[in-house]
Amino acid sequence: MNAMCHEVNNMPIFKRWFLEKFKTPESVCAHYLRSLEEVAASIGASLPSDFLDKMQLTTSKNGKHIYLPDQKGQRIKKHYYTAFLGETGLQEKVEIPILSFKSYRLPGYTTWSPAKLLWQDFKNEKRVNGNKTSQAEVDNRYEESLKQIKERSKILEEQYAILTTEAQKAAAKLALTQLGKNFSKRVTDPSYWFGINGLEPRPEAEYECYRSASGRVYIKDTESWETRFGAQCRDMLIPVYNSKGALSTIQKITPSQFGSAKKTFIPFSETQGCFTIVSKDINPNLFVIGEGYKTVRVYDHANTFRDIKFTAICAFSANNLPSVAQLLCSQYPDATILFAEDNDETGHYYAKKGQETIDSKYPPIPAPNLFKGSDWADLCRHNSINEVAIKFNEALDSILSLGSK
Is residue 8 part of a domain? Predict the structure, then answer.
């Protein structure tokens, strides 16, 4: 008992006050329920009577979505929240519940944290009671509650990892099956993406992944919610493969007349370290890795004017360049691997990082300096695809000559 009191006396004042006042994270929410109700109302939702019993606090911000009824009490899936653990205090770290509210009708999220309310109450009570705080024995029920939440979160994360792995495999197969059936018509020719004519269409076999489904593919990975991967006849669908050569996911590119095309992958699918070989013929001695699919198609078109051709690889994102390069390097240790960067800080950084990852002596192939973020496909807006391909070959050969010195 004396040891316990001594430990309590040495605790920071705020933390001691907090643990004397609250026994579980849920009790913090119960104490400030009025504030929570106001936040829920701001997105058009209300808190049900069993709200505190079904909070499902986790250690991850990407925890389970708990749907809320609207202010009339109707259970429509328009509003939800996620409850997770956060911290307050500088030197006096205390773990507290934080809730993130979202409505499909409104943009963004509304985050509720009791931190400000806690510190305000602490200061008010301290003014009334002076510097003396209760020396009553503080039990460890709050800490035990946190321990249980963390143990449960760990189990859920392990289960979630298994579910998502299984879901992404099933989703890719299901998507291809669905897209192979009931398709309406072939999507717009790839030359649409370049805004000019002259780009040869891909072999007929590749168009199996360019067909679209009239319906949607549903991916159910939990009992409470589901995500959708829908395709329309205007969309282009690109197969993405993992290091073992198995189909990992599909990228959907939806054209836009008012800006960049929208690119999405099948939800929860594996993308890191995954790629697509754009070239029909593979040269195992020379690879060029780029970011976006339509840009890499421009690189591949440059092979039309080359005697020694290269294999064009699409990594789909800048931060994936080092991973794909490392994979190619392990499979083709004697090959020359080059990076074609986009004209932005992210493109420069990851192309350079990829070069360092495989210890390459060849610097990245620079993108045209049209504007921030521009790439070789953007050059097709003002030039024919053949002219761009010739200019790309000049840049490629310049890099190869630099590396050979």
Answer: yes
Q: How many domains, in total, are found in the chain?
A: 3
**In terms of domains, do 17 and 128 share one?**
yes
Residue 102 CA to residue 80 CA, distance in Å, equals 6
Structure tokens, 51 = 């709200």
pLDDT of 273 over the 70 cut:
yes
Same domain, 253 and 276: no
Q: What is the dihedral of CA 274, 279, 282, 284, to 10 degrees?
A: -60
In this structure, the answer to whether residues 56 and 134 fall within a common structural domain is: yes
Is position 154 within any domain?
no
Contact 237, 231 (CB under 8 A): yes
Q: What percent of the chain has pLDDT over 90?
A: 22
Reported pTM? 0.50
Residue 155 counted as domain residue: no
Question: pLDDT band at 243, cuts 50/70/90?
Answer: confident
Same domain, yes or no, for 123 and 135?
Answer: yes
DSSP 21: H
The per-residue pLDDT of the chain, averaged, comes to 76
Please report where in the chains the tokens 């992210």 appear, as a residue: 346
Residue 243 backbone zone (phi > 0: left; psi -120 to 50: alpha; other: beta): alpha
Give the per-residue pLDDT at 208.
32
Give the integer Cα–Cα distance in Å for 221 and 187.
30
- Domain of 66 in residue numbering reads as 2-139
pLDDT in tens, 2-17: 444 444 556 778 888 8
Q: Are residues 51 and 117 in the same domain?
A: yes
Q: Round to whole Å and give the CA distance between 111 and 81.
A: 9
Across 353-373, average pLDDT: 87
Q: Each residue of 167-185: b (16+ CB within 10 Å) or e?
A: bbbebbebbbebbeeebee
Q: What local confidence, expressed as pLDDT, does residue 59 receive?
A: 87
In a domain, 157, yes or no: no
* Last residue in a domain, options 270, 303, 319: 270
